[in-house]
Specification:
Length: 255
């Protein structure tokens, strides 16, 4: 049994309450769950959510955490973002029906590979490469940096279809106190962006807005499978060490 599966096996389910939610885009919703006995998590990890129907039928889905855990008077608060899939079994409920005060089961945190913290960085700069909703765990790293008052240089290259699909738009476009040293470039695949004409991410983009390979940055790439494979290949072609590239992928479709 792999360490990932073993970690899932020993984790227990906890009851969480939805305390806040808001639309991030027309098809994505941010959820804030309060979990009284949450053990804490690291930036980049994810959780399983479990829904149980009146007939006892259960179904589970995994979602990346968007921020460091913050303790509130009622417990720990976790933020995640759910992208609505029109014919999905779970996401339409979470985005359209799930309301403040409703309960859900949560299990985690899960994943120990795709994580970042200031104490593990060794001072190396960080390059975040996101495709679509793959920006969620990378946003947790940006927020972890801010939360810890860390000054590690960060660069985020964020590729998505159109401006209307951008998650965390206000926060990324108007960074607040503590985000000095975080540089963000947003690229669109289906409409022109201020940086360049529409198109998929390429080596020119990563060379222009990423870190040079001789800086030995820690690279985190997250998004749909095709995007992640191509972005990792491009980073290797630019001279980045395979040991410095960590990837997280999901689903068959790309931005």
């Amino acid at each position: 049994m792999t360490s990932e599966l073993l970690g899932r096996a020993v984790l227990s389910w906890r009851v969480a309450e939805l305390v806040e939610s808001w639309p991030e885009t027309a098809s994505a919703r941010a959820l804030v769950l309060e979990v009284p006995d949450w053990p804490g998590h690291r930036a980049g990890q994810h959780v399983d959510l479990r829904l149980t129907g009146p007939d006892g039928y259960t179904t589970e889905r995994s979602y990346s955490l968007a921020s460091p855990a913050e303790r509130s008077p009622g417990g720990w608060r976790l933020q995640l973002v759910v992208q609505r899939v029109a014919d999905g079994e779970v996401s339409p409920y979470l985005t359209d029906t799930f309301a403040a005060g409703n309960l859900i089961e949560v299990r985690g945190p899960i994943g120990g590979w795709f994580v970042w913290s200031p104490r593990e960085g060794g001072g190396a700069p960080v390059l975040l490469v996101a495709g679509g909703s793959g920006v969620v765990p990378l946003m947790s790293m940006i927020r972890e940096r801010r939360f810890r008052h860390d000054r590690t240089p960060f660069r985020l290259v964020y590729s998505l279809r159109t401006r209307a699909d951008e998650l965390f738009a206000d926060e990324l476009n108007r960074p607040g106190s503590g985000d000095g040293g975080v540089e963000t470039v947003v690229l669109h695949t289906r409409e022109d962006s201020p940086r360049r004409p529409a198109g998929r991410i390429g080596a020119v983009d990563l060379a222009a807005w990423g870190w040079p390979a001789d800086f030995a940055p820690r690279c985190f790439v997250c998004g749909p499978t095709g995007f992640v494979e191509e972005a990792a290949r491009l980073l290797l072609s630019l001279g980045h060490s395979p040991d410095d590239i960590k990837t997280e992928r999901f689903g068959p479709s790309g931005p």
